[in-house]
Design a protein that fits this description.
Number of strands: 10
Shape: globular
Largest sheet: 5 strands, parallel
Order of helices and strands: HHEHEHEHEHEHHHEHEHEEHEHH
Radius of gyration: 22 Å
Structural class: alpha/beta
Length: 342
């Protein structure tokens, strides 16, 4: 009898251990809290941010050749739109973005939608949020209006820089696992879909400029106050020795994208701090903008480094053949015609 009891408890321990391994999201919570539940929900409808689809880019050449096949929503300021925009584009306020996308999908559900911003950073952020809400036909114009015509490329071209002299090739470890941020919802919201859409609408209305993008170079102050993340392939994190350059700012932690997608709940998501600001950089800033949207949705305090590695070590991007896909250059500017006025 005692032997049978020992076998029973041993098997029970194995089952419980297996469940926890398969559901790292749970940690020490027996019941999923609000954040975990909406995370599970967006995973169940595709987990867009943690797939090769993110950040849902389309090229200027694709849009130019097939612009009538897209509903074009330009989210720049009205004066920027008036100075020059893509033909048939509609200038809208971010405050109305969710509702307009929703209405377009009800009218023409099979027509794709492209969001236009100045440099592709803001549009990548909002497209990720819309994708999390289930709008699978929404895209962002790669590099924004900067790729359409050189008249709109000054900000991108001015951001290209190199300040990696003090960077390191040390690999900093991830933090221990911790709980997800705590989110609260109005009691009137019952389903996870209702809570997801509510939160996405609230985040969109806050905009991209305020608190979610970082345009300055990474300084000592930021190193000491923020949890720094390099998101992408290994060459973005550690520079090959034969290039004669260094890898990343001090204290930067590497999170891999494809094929591991380490921001997944089943991977290293919960090693992100829930009590410290996070600053992410990627190759060109568009993927980090998308991941910033995803993590903001989950309640993390996150910023994206505008223009990504193009701002940090542009020379290295040019020197390393494995990183050329992230380079913004004159070759990316198509100089397509544009329309002025309203």
């Amino acid at each position: 009898m005692k032997i049978n009891q020992k076998i029973f408890f041993f098997l029970l321990l194995l089952i419980l251990s297996s469940c926890l391994d398969e559901n790292s999201l749970l940690n020490d919570n027996i019941e999923l809290d609000g954040t975990a539940k909406i995370l599970r929900y967006i995973e169940s409808i595709g987990d867009f941010a943690n797939t090769d689809l993110a950040p849902a880019l389309i090229s200027a050449s694709e849009l130019f050749s097939n612009n009538l096949q897209y509903s074009i929503l330009d989210i720049r300021e009205p004066q920027e739109f008036t100075a020059g925009h893509i033909e048939f584009a509609r200038n809208i306020s971010v405050l109305n973005l969710y509702e307009i996308v929703d209405s377009l999908n009800k009218i023409t559900p099979l027509k794709n939608i492209v969001i236009i911003s100045k440099n592709g950073q803001a549009s990548a952020y909002f497209v990720c949020l819309l994708r999390l809400a289930g709008f699978t036909n929404v895209y962002t114009l790669n590099y924004g209006m900067a790729s359409w015509n050189v008249d709109f490329a000054a900000e991108w071209l001015g951001a290209l820089g190199n300040s990696d002299q003090s960077y390191l090739n040390l690999e900093y470890p991830k933090k221990p696992f911790t709980n997800l941020p705590n989110l609260e919802f109005p009691p009137s919201l019952i389903t996870e879909q209702e809570k997801t859409n509510y939160r996405i609408k609230e985040i969109i209305k806050k905009g991209f400029i305020s608190g979610v993008n970082f345009s300055e170079n990474i300084s000592t102050g930021i190193i000491n106050t923020h949890f720094l993340v390099c998101y992408g392939k290994g060459q973005l994190y550690g520079a090959p020795r034969d290039l004669g350059s260094r890898g990343h700012p001090e204290n930067t932690v590497w999170f891999k994208d494809t094929p591991l997608f380490e921001f997944r709940s089943t991977n290293s998501l919960q090693t992100l701090p829930n009590n410290q600001p996070i600053l992410i950089y990627s190759g060109d800033g568009q993927l980090s903008s998308c991941m910033t949207a995803y993590l903001t949705f989950l309640g993390y305090d996150v910023k994206s480094l505008l223009f990504g590695a193009n701002q940090l070590f542009y020379f290295r991007l040019n020197a390393d053949p494995t990183l050329t896909e992230y380079i913004f250059s004159m070759a990316d500017i198509m100089n397509y015609p544009y329309t002025t006025g309203n």
